[in-house]
Design goal:
Blueprint (H helix, E strand, L loop, with lengths): L2 E4 L3 H13 L3 E7 L6 H5 L2 E6 L10 H11 L3 E3 L9 H9 L3 E2 L4 H8 L1 H10 L15 H11 L3 E5 L9 E3 L5 H16 L4 E5 L5 E9 L5 E13 L2 E7 L6 H17 L4 E11 L6 E9 L6 H8 L3 H9 L16 E8 L1 E2 L5 E2 L2 E2 L2 E3 L6 E5 L6 E2 L6 E9 L2 H14 L1 E3 L5 H9 L1 H4 L7 H11 L12 H7 L2 E5 L2 E4 L3 H10 L3
Parallel strand pairs: 1-2, 1-4, 2-3, 4-5
Antiparallel strand pairs: 6-7, 6-8, 9-10, 9-12, 10-11, 11-14, 12-13, 14-21, 15-16, 17-20, 18-22, 19-21, 23-24
Helix pairs in contact: 4-5, 5-6, 12-13, 13-17, 16-17
């Protein structure tokens, strides 16, 4: 492997380009018309236009990407996450073209890509999974029968789903027929397949996932867990590692189950096995249930890197070159605590409405324990065509409490002018008592947002805001040469900072 084409954009494209450069590999970027001035284009050794802005005419066109690989002489393709990263047909096309796909083999993707097939694979690997059907439901009558067997409440899910689309929670049998029709229709529109299945709804679980990586020599290890319980509409908002509620015994049992599943499917490269974790109401013990396996590098991989000291993209590339992992399970030691906030161009005070547009000012946080994987710069226009994630802000410290404090400090330093961002939302979450005591579950954020809508925000006297940033936005007024008065709450100041410079 000498030259890698990165079939993606934004922060993940930069992340892979940097790893390739550290390993002495040449890089090729691809871009759509609206990404002509994007950061990843200027960071790569070469860059090639794909087509118009819509992803279906650019980043999702495997034929165009393979054509660029041939013209540029790239002998490998790293897909990042999203787009073609879990497309078995594209992995097959790479193999047919003699190009290394930096990811799992197509056969493993097919075995795990559909949620119903993944549930069958979990059964074969003797993993605990959420009770329910392992095949798509053929009719409302079948759905009613399965629901009566496992008991209400239940959840309908799209077999080819993700991101919360094609999902419906059902509390009563009378609600099931209409929910079935709605979930199936949404699944058809979103994924091209209306197949849905049904599983028991686990009430207030925690979402905890295990990172695994496997090589072509039969080695597979797990790299601890990440907790992703802070979600909005089934999309992750904050991730952390390790989980505050996972001890050594549960970690080992979940990790060994994840490795068992990966090996049983011939999995190679980085992947993540997702679980729901709940506490048994009778025994008080923690139970875990298999949800699905993501056959790619994940957005939240940096928190695992921070607590293991490993570089997952380096490992991906070496595995793709045919090298053995070079580490055993007993070599992996977790140290400290890491948090990741996904910084989005959206307005949390306006129902998270997207906020594309020109970034007029950008001051990025830094200092000890702070890492930012970013794909934007001041003077760049955030396009409407793609996911609005601007960056991933990661804080690392010895303990969870210190990592939260470090993240709050970093958020106070973060200034994005010209567009709205969700930075103010993270301040609210990280300052919330329940989050700080790790009293969270997958419904936690929806409750917090509902409370915020119902209760006026109180001013907190004496709060220290980001002095330099606020002075730039004019939200702090000096009363004398050596005194600074905080004139607004942190929420208000944040809103003004994010809207400044428009």
């Amino acid at each position: 492997m000498k030259k890698v084409l990165i079939a993606n954009r934004g922060e993940i494209a930069l992340r892979v380009i940097r790893a390739c450069r550290e390993m002495g590999l040449a890089t090729v970027a691809v871009y759509s018309d609206v990404d002509r001035a994007a950061l990843h284009v200027s960071y790569a050794d070469e860059a090639y236009r794909l087509g118009p802005g819509p992803a279906t005419e650019s980043y999702l066109r495997g034929d165009l990407i393979l054509d660029v690989a041939r013209r540029s002489g790239a002998d490998a393709i790293h897909p990042g996450y999203g787009f073609l990263s879990e497309n078995a047909g594209f992995a097959d096309a790479c193999a047919a073209a003699g190009i290394t796909f930096v990811g799992p083999p197509a056969s493993a993707m097919r075995a795990l890509g559909s949620k119903t097939k993944a549930r069958q694979a979990a059964d074969a690997a003797e993993m605990p999974r959420v009770p329910g059907s392992v095949t798509g439901l053929s009719s409302v009558e079948e759905a009613l029968r399965v629901a009566s067997e496992i008991g209400y409440p239940v959840m309908l899910k799209a077999a080819a789903g993700g991101g919360g689309k094609g999902m419906r929670a059902v509390a009563l049998a009378a609600e099931l027929p209409s929910a079935f029709t709605a979930a199936s229709s949404e699944a058809e529109r979103s994924f091209g397949s209306g197949e849905v299945y049904l599983e028991k709804l686990i009430v207030e679980p925690r979402h905890i996932e295990i990172q695994v990586i496997a090589d072509t020599h039969g080695n597979c290890v797990y790299l601890g867990e990440r907790e992703c319980s802070v979600q909005r509409r089934h999309q992750k908002v904050i991730e952390e590692a390790p989980s505050a509620v996972v001890g050594d015994s549960l970690r080992r049992r979940m990790g060994e189950a994840a490795v068992r599943l990966a090996l049983s499917c011939g999995y190679v490269n980085a992947g993540t096995v997702e679980f729901l974790v709940s506490r048994d109401q009778v025994t008080g013990e923690q139970d875990f249930y298999f949800l699905e396996m993501n056959t790619r590098l994940q957005v939240e991989h940096p928190v695992t890197e921070m607590i293991t000291g490993l570089d997952l993209v380096h490992m991906q590339l070496r595995v793709a070159m045919g090298e053995p992992l070079g580490i055993r399970q007993q070599d992996i030691h977790l140290r400290g605590h890491a948090l990741e906030c996904r910084i989005y161009a959206e307005d949390p005070d306006n129902n998270f409405f997207p906020s594309p547009g020109l970034i007029t000012r950008l001051i990025q946080p830094g200092g000890p324990g702070i890492r930012e994987d970013c794909g934007v710069y001041a003077g760049w226009t955030v396009p409407l065509e793609y996911d609005p994630m601007l960056s991933k802000l990661v804080a690392y410290a010895e303990t969870r409490e210190l990592a939260i404090d470090k993240m709050l400090r970093a958020l106070d330093e973060y200034v994005v002018g010209g567009i709205k961002t969700n930075i103010s939302l993270f301040r609210r979450i990280l300052s919330d008592k329940d989050f700080r005591t790790a009293n969270i579950h997958t419904g936690y954020l929806e409750r917090l947002l509902a409370e915020a809508n119902a209760t006026p925000v109180k001013q907190v006297p004496g709060e220290i805001v980001a002095v330099a940033a606020a002075l730039l936005s004019g939200s702090i007024k000096t009363r004398s040469s050596d005194a600074i008065a905080v004139t607004e709450s942190r929420w208000t100041a944040a809103g003004r900072r994010e809207g400044a410079g428009a």
